[in-house]
Amino acid sequence: MHVLRTVLRPGWIALGVVVIAFAVACFTLLAPWQLGKNSSTEHRNDLIRAAADTGPVPLAQLAPTGAFDASNEWREVTISGHYLPAAQTLVRLRNVDEQAAIEVVTPFAVAGTDRVIAVDRGFVRPAEGAAPPIPAVPTGEVTISGRIRAPEGTTPGRGAHSEENMLAVYTIDPAEIGRATGLRMDGFYVQLSPAQPGSLGEIPLPQLDSGPYLSYGLQWLAFGIMAPLGAAYFLYSEIRQRRRSAAANRARSSTVTAETSSESAPAVDTAGAASSARAERRRRVRSDLRAASTAPDPRQVGQVGSGPDAERTPDQVRDKLSQRYGG
């Protein structure tokens, strides 16, 4: 009963709801989110390692169509064709080596085909209060090498826009750039390798480590386990404290009852003794009265008494006895 009353308190009900919701979030949202990022990072690292051990191949060999194949990401390809500088696009809000950067994407027309590839030429540092200087691309047909990259997609409301007479975006999304420039581009882009025609600042490859995602995921799992255990411990402590308080109250009540009984016992005995004494006096009075009423009158029998009560009548004796014994 104590357990039920404690559990059904409004505060404990609210705490239980919060703890259960937090544990469910840990196991279904937070931990899978971090563990999923860890798996994604591990997969990316495996692709980079495999690509680093493989030399560049012609684009037509690795990507004969314009569709993106995730298993080919980070593979290096060679492409022949020419740049389309009129459709050049700035990619804002980038970070390279922990410094602000602007990446430059210039479409590249593949020789002998109608395919157009978005080529990330590298980065330039932003200039204070002015458009950054961007070196021009070479004219005519060139052969370049670069790594295939997955499209980054576009967040709604943050698509292509005009900025200082140039097209600007926030992510490298060939579909979005194609819509803004009127070009039909393949579903991936190519990150230009160093020392290539038209290359700018080199964008380094990601470091091959898993990051903190695995430890974060395990921490969320631990939190999801610890939260119910902690709530159960506090509930157990509350119940134990309540039982101790109830036992102390019962012991205190027993002590008070015993003291009250011991204090009232002499009064009962005294009253009983007094009652018994009064009854005994009444009995003695009645006995003396009966004896006095039946005793002969000494004057009638001719005897003379020698004491102070010798000449008293029975009625006088009765009155004296009543005065003496309170009859």
TrEMBL record:
Membrane topology of this protein: Multi-pass membrane protein
Chief localization: membrane
Keyword field: Cell membrane, Membrane, Transmembrane, Transmembrane helix
Keyword Thylakoid: no
Similarity-based family: Belongs to the SURF1 family.
UniProt keyword annotation of Transmembrane present: yes
Listed name of the protein: SURF1-like protein
Taxonomic source organism: Gordonia bronchialis (strain ATCC 25592 / DSM 43247 / BCRC 13721 / JCM 3198 / KCTC 3076 / NBRC 16047 / NCTC 10667) (Rhodococcus bronchialis)
GO cellular component terms listed in the entry, alphabetical order: plasma membrane
Coiled-coil stretches noted in the UniProt entry, renumbered to this chain: none
Compositional bias (Basic and acidic residues): 309-327
Segments of skewed composition (Low complexity): 248-277
Segments crossing the lipid bilayer: 12-35, 213-236
